[in-house]
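User: My collaborator sent over this chain with a note saying "see what the structure looks like." That's all I know about it. Can you take a look?
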Amino acid sequence: MLIDPAERFQGKVLVVAPHMDDEVLACGGLMARLPDKSRIYVVYATDGMKSPAPLMPWRDAITPDLGERRVQESVAAMGRLGVAPENLRFLRLPEAELPRHEAELERGLLEAIEAISPDHVVVPFRYDRHPDHLAINRAVTGLCLDGRCTARLTEYFVYYRWRLLPRRDIRRYVKPEHLLEVDISQVAHEKRASLACFETQATCFYAWQTRPILTPTLLDEECVGPEVFLRFDPDATGAAVFTGAVPWIRIVHRLEPRLQKWKYVAKSWVSRGLGRGAA
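Assistant: Without extra context I'll predict from the sequence alone. Here is the result:
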């Protein structure tokens, strides 16, 4: 269903981002289209210290200021979209380790929700393929279901490309009545300019990288609308939103991230000639 963001997202809107860049990748067009930027807030859960992360840590390393660089990139990216720095909060929990810090995560998110009193909270999709995304979804969904958060909940998609699914896009397996679409064609240039602020993600930031985290092709694709969201329904939790193929979706959800990681490791070895040396 195509929606007008100004009508659907009235009042204060809180976007919860696991990592610096998720907020723009999934919601940049939505934020650009909201008329009053002063009512947009973003909470970042992690410290930004594992993207990029060396595939071979015994050989490569990151600089101690990577996390702070990423904080400043998000401040700049949000500035491009008109969101003031004072509307941003950084919990700085360890990246890629949120499932081990769920109590701290829930406490930080609850404090932010109580301070902001949002009318809407926008979080990662319940089946996103990163553990940090899943931890945030669990935390906020729990707060909403037990009444500690009364805001309307909406889920956004970051990892929606699933190569092992026949339709390649997990959103195509969601029942249409749960999906909301935002046309971003008129603000696509604003979203793209905002994404360009993420230098650590959009370039080979370290000499040891073989590719950027966010390639130019991917960034361009993310600016061709619409942005798609899942309308949370307490009567359709978990896999109840899917049209079918649930067993295979669950298998792919666990399997594909592991295969992708090993693919990157193999490419890194080959590109540096280490594969031949090891042989």
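A starting point for your reply to your collaborator: The two ends are 54 Å apart (CA to CA).
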